[in-house]
Amino acid sequence: MKKWQCTICDFCYDEAAGFPEEGIAPGTRWEDIPDDWSCPDCGMGKSDFVMQEV
Amino acid sequence: MASTPANEWKDGKKYLWLMSPLLPLLGVLAFAAYAFTGFSALLWTGPILVFLVVPLLDFLIGTDPVNAPESAVPGLVAQKYYKYITYAYIPSQFAVTVMGALYAASGQLAIWEFAGLVLSVGTLNGIGINTAHELGHKAGKLDRWLARLTLAPVAYGHFFVEHNRGHHVRVATPEDPASSRMGETFWQFLPRTVTGSVRSACELERKRLAREGRSFWSVENEVLQAWAMTVALFAALTIALGPVALLFLVLQAAYGASLLEVINYIEHYGLLRRKQENGRYERCQPQHSWNSNHIVTNLVLYQLQRHSDHHAHPTRPFQALRHFEEAPQLPSGYASMLIAAYIPPLWFRIMDHRVVAHYKGDLSVANLQPGREEKLLAKWSAANDNASEAQQAA
What we know:
The complex is a heterodimer of chains A (about 55) and B (about 400). Chain A has about 55 residues and is an all-beta fold. Chain A is about 0% helix and about 20% strand. Chain A has a three-stranded antiparallel sheet, with no helix packed on it. Chain B has helices spanning about 20-35, 45-60, 75-80, 80-85, 90-105, 110-135, 140-150, 160-170, 185-210, 220-240, 245-265, 295-300, 305-310, 335-340, 345-360, 375-394. The longest helix of chain B has 26 residues, at about 110-135. The interface of A and B includes residues 9, 11, 40, 42 and 45 of A.
């Protein structure tokens, strides 16, 4: 499981936790999130996220 | 409109976007003309444009709700032309700043000519914040440096950090210094947003640098980098021209920054994102920004008034921003609204009933000024009761 961080506002998407409030189940891999999904904090697109080493 | 094939769709405003970089060029020409004619009104070009010409043109020309068809957007986004339009603002913006400092330091201006000069240069550098805003949302290194450069004459470099990482995250919440609350006057909002934005920008950079194991006083600090450009520019002009140049630069920067803040005041007045059960705010949606389709202000400000789409898609370039039917609309363009914002009773009269209507009479879900909640709720619930009684009677 990996973490992905928004390069603009630092919101962190954790694959293990998912994002249940928007219907993204825990364990959902980054590549399975729709391309039009955007950062829930600042609205940046999926392409503005980078993988974060943890 | 949906039936227009993308390859046939043409941006009807393609060349009209040049109006924005035309503004500082008009400033340069007006100042040059002043040098030859001595006609003082030329020094007031900035306020004349913003307070008279643009509102009048908005009134005469009106609105345009047309969106580019979605299929034409990739082509529109790929055209470098639109990016060069934002770059084109910068050279004459700097020219007008230097000319202003030269004239101010000449010691030959009457006080009201000096005032006009301050307001004109402040206006053009204030509108330059809009150019910096567009550039600051781009991913490219050059664009992001140019954003800071554009903010140097107005001494507002921290905006580059605070806007993207602060305002876009907290927009339309009580925590955002750059979102105004219903019942808050512009004159209360101004000190709150100015100090709150500086504090927020420094805090964001301190945290980012700490994560990278650096101190706040690092050369990597983007706030300090941007402020250093202002210090260099102001110092160079002061050394060359004397202390009156510094006085002029500080005054025009203060006025320019206040122009940005009056626009901030307008953009989210009274609007509030709902806090969800898990403590996070709902996503920023079209209903969380005030919009306007007034053509002339939109051309000058790169469609900043299509503000809902900007907050939903911050990297979407200006030429592709859309009008949303469901987004709250201002009665006029920003250029007219900012005059009302300076006069609180007029502003409340124009806007408060629109906030009430937007929330269908339920102000408990609006962003209200602390301390004024009870008064506002009482005033508008009484007004609503009267309205529904009148409706029943009819």
